[in-house]
Amino acid sequence: MTKPGEHEASANLSAILEAIPHRYPFLLIDRITEYVAYEHAVMLKNVTINEGFFQGHFPEHPVMPGVLVVEAMAQAAGVFAVRSIGKEGQDHIVYLMGLDSVRFRRPVVPGDQLWIRVEKQRIRENVWRVGATAEVDGERAAEAVLTAMIRHRDQWTEDG
Length: 160
Description:
The structure is a single chain. By secondary structure, this protein is of the alpha+beta class. Helix content is 20%, strand content 40%. The chain contains 3 helices and 7 strands, in the order E-H-E-E-H-E-E-E-E-H. The chain has helices at residues 13-19, 66-85, 155-159; strands spanning 7-8, 31-36, 40-46, 92-104, 113-124, 127-136, 139-152. Strands 1-2-3-5-6-7-4 form a 7-stranded antiparallel beta sheet, with helices on one face. Strand 6 (127-136) and strand 7 (139-152) form a beta hairpin. The longest helix is centred in the middle third of the chain and has 20 residues, at 66-85.
């Protein structure tokens, strides 16, 4: 089990794939660059013109949809929570329950590196509340407070 305050400098894509069920083309996190269990994490999304959503949003002026920026923050929060729980967390899924204080500050475009920071605000049983920010070149692109429930993969189908 990961201890509170345990620090990890960097982790590759396999660590992300172990923590959350998302896969291409919906996986929106490329690397964990900083991680302190139960405290905070920083993750990176390299935004490329090859992303499928740029074909329609918007072909003449490609902008990453805000809902996908929020999804990237939610995925980062999920990775952070599951890795904090430790080995037993690998059999769990994080379900987004709520979004508060969502703000968009600048567009995210092809070529940007989206740096996502998530920070624990509160944990009550299996419900986590996490503050999240997304930045490009040190400038805030988006922010939100996310609430999520962590449940065992089999538990959702057993008790609805």
